Amino acid sequence: NAFRWFFWMLLWISLGVYVSVSRIIDEPTEFCSTAKLVTAHGFAPEIRSQTLSDPRFFNTVISIIESADLQRRALDRVRALHPDLQEVAVRTRASQPKDTAFLNLSANSVDPKYTKIFLNALIDEFLILRKEMREKMGALGSDVAVLEHPSPAVEKLSNWVIPISIGALVGGLAGVAVAHQLRRLTRRAST
Q1: Which of 130, 127, 106, 129 is nearest to 118 (CA)?
Q2: What is d(CA 179, CA 170) in angstroms, rounded to the nearest whole number?
Q3: pLDDT band at 68 (very low <50, low <70, confident <90, very high)
Q4: Which pLDDT score, from 0 to 100, does residue 140 have?
Q5: How far is the C-alpha of 179 from the C-alpha of 73, rounded, in Å?
Q6: What's this model's pTM, rounded to 2 decimal places?
Q7: Contact call for residues 122 and 92 (beta carbons, < 8 A)
Q8: d(CA 85, CA 120)
């Protein structure tokens, strides 16, 4: 009887893991390119410390980087500079590590070359836009600079642990349910 329970659980756990793995394998390979910007570049020390402690500054910069307008400008730049490249969808993200003047940028897509080129174009367009904004406000200098240029896009490993664990858990629960139902049916049949 215990062997039957074990057999059904193992069978359903294996089925859950199989389904999860087959879903992961079917996903296209994704590549990630990263870059780092430093903010508050060119400010006087007293202004720099005020800017770094004001989350609105970083939220504004991140909003600009992730905006549809800047994405469009970057896409136009890539089209102009690299007309031979086939366009692919690129997901970009900007974040600020806690209590730093840095902004981490990442771009993800299925084409490693295009990913890096797009992130480069995004940074270029962002710096141009920030310069235009600062000139309109009468500010001198730059408040953002490139600390690390985009890295070559590397394969982004799929996070397989969670889907496989969920598949095993769901499969195990299904195995318990099936074994329980079979046990009830065999009891009824014997009475």
Answers
A1: 106
A2: 14
A3: very high
A4: 61
A5: 59
A6: 0.67
A7: yes
A8: 14
